[in-house]
What we know:
- The protein is α/β, with parallel strands linked by helices.
- The chain contains seven helices and 15 strands.
- The protein has helices at 11-21, 59-74, 103-112, 166-176, 219-230, 249-255, 277-283; strands spanning 2-6, 29-32, 38-41, 49-53, 79-84, 117-121, 137-139, 157-160, 180-183, 185-188, 194-197, 208-215, 236-243, 260-264, 272-274.
- The structure holds ribose-5-phosphate (R5P).
Amino acid sequence: MTTIVSGSASQTLSARLARELEVPLAAVEYDRFPDGELLAAAPDFDDDRAIVVASTVSSDTHLELLQLQDAVREAGAEEVVTVIPYMGYARQDKPFESGHPVSARAVARALSTGADRVLTVTPHEEAVCEFFEPTATAVGAADRLAEPLPDDLEEPVFLSPDEGAIDLAETVRDAYGDGETDYFEKVRHSGTDVEITPSDVDVTDRDVVVADDIIATGSTMSEAVGVLQERGVGRVFVTCVHPLLARNAVTKLRRAGVEAIYGTDTIEGQTSTVSVAPTLAAEL
Ligand code: R5P
């Protein structure tokens, strides 16, 4: 039998996954010792297969995941499947300067030690899966992003903020069933300074959906939306798999004139309108 064990940042998704798979959800406890050290535990876990579901949205949740993997093994699990709906540090997949670590590789190696199998949802680059041993499975969830879009989009255009995410925009368009696709050219000058060059497609009075794998600071999306507003666009919707929405991202996007922000529950928050539970369940 299988039991789902949830990290603190993935409790809603874990419950949805347990319902999809019709398996129990373990009781979990997240505590902290007086010296500040964390303690994540699954006191009643008593099964031979664990699916540990934990988005690593912070350093603490990384550590929690390591502890939960270890806790279920200690309690007798013969198979530990680790689901990382959102993998933190995945975008640090190369040393950006001399002396920098490959952080994605470092965390993947650590998490591999406690897992027999790893799944992660729409990583920024699929190559990050190869940092795991054995190689992790990338589960694509972009098709889910069409679900909350209004049915009445006016001559829709599905854009990605850079060429690398065009597949994602195409997947959303295909799932929606109608519309043109294109991409912007993007140059990143710093963590929050992004320059966007418009695509050639005519967006005048048309509804546009800008789709990306992640919205972090919102700089990429708000620049893209700004360009669209200058071109007389109709409504603009932004959608992403991982709605990290750090700092003032929501305000930036709203000020840029975005009609709605949609994301999935790989990162749980107010914009997590779509669940990846059915997609993950199909892989488990
Ligand atoms: C980068 O290529 C990614 O696909 C995203 O466009 C980027 O990480 C979003 O970051 P931010 O919201 O900080 O611009």
